[in-house]
Amino acid sequence: MIIPPYSGVKLVEYHDRIALKPIEWKREFVGFCKVDAKDSTPVLWEGTKPSLLRRLVGSDVWIVLQWNRFEDGSEQCINMIRMADCTEEEAYAEFKRHIRFLKMSKEELEALSKCFDVPEDDKNYIADRFPEECPPPYSGEKYDLYQARLKVLAGMQPKTVAFIQEADATNDPHFQKNCEFEAVSAYYAEMARYWKSEEVKAWQRTNPIATEWIKEFARVFEKPRKELDPVDHEIVLNWLNRGYNLLTAEELSEMIFQATGKKMTPEAIKKRRERLGLVTKRSPGPRSNI
Known about the structure:
Blueprint: E1 6-13, E2 18-24, E3 26-36, H1 42-45, H2 50-56, E4 60-70, E5 75-84, H3 88-102, H4 106-113, H5 125-129, H6 141-153, H7 158-169, H8 173-191, H9 197-206, H10 211-222, H11 230-238, H12 249-260, H13 266-275
Antiparallel strand pairs: 1-2, 3-4, 4-5
Helix pairs in contact: 6-11, 7-8, 8-10, 12-13
């Protein structure tokens, strides 16, 4: 298990949830080379069926490799494509395709994803690659939604969210970097109890935490496990995605019941929405048929 050194924590909007995610510094590399199928280096053939290896004996195989290098110098293989019976030009074309893909913007990737059925394992690729940044206050609804999402996530990770908000609010680069560093320690202290032992140990090797955060981890560990409020989470996840911002309290109450199974009165939903700092754009009165 590779746990790189982390430099901060960001809000991420996945296709089915929102979450906080530690962010690492990394450089991305793509390369290609030709190897002999007789080469017994294990990493070259990991996951390859023995029957295929037998057919490749005596052949030259082109390999296109993508990997990350982290701040501490450690490296992680992300993708490896093996191409038998192909020319150098064909291998080079695959190499260039990888580079073009890595250079694609969020908007380009979102447009591309609409052209085919995205496999379940790949649905969070864009979210992981482009975590959310704090919108400027003048952006209005987007800024309000970002703050509402942090407020919901603070139900499980209050100290992490507090440092994220401080980092977002300051114009002092040194103070911002310190807040981002502390957010990483807070993330560990508040979330490590939900991890497997091997992940906890791997984190400690590359992201050591100060004594006060060890104490915070112990304090959190002694308390009951927390869960995000399902109603709040549904509201902030789909406020814009499903047009909850355009619904009356009555309509939103029904939509929340369908999504979560939680029955709430329109007045309760209205108060919940207001507590999150979200305001409907729906005008009073009957919905227009135009």
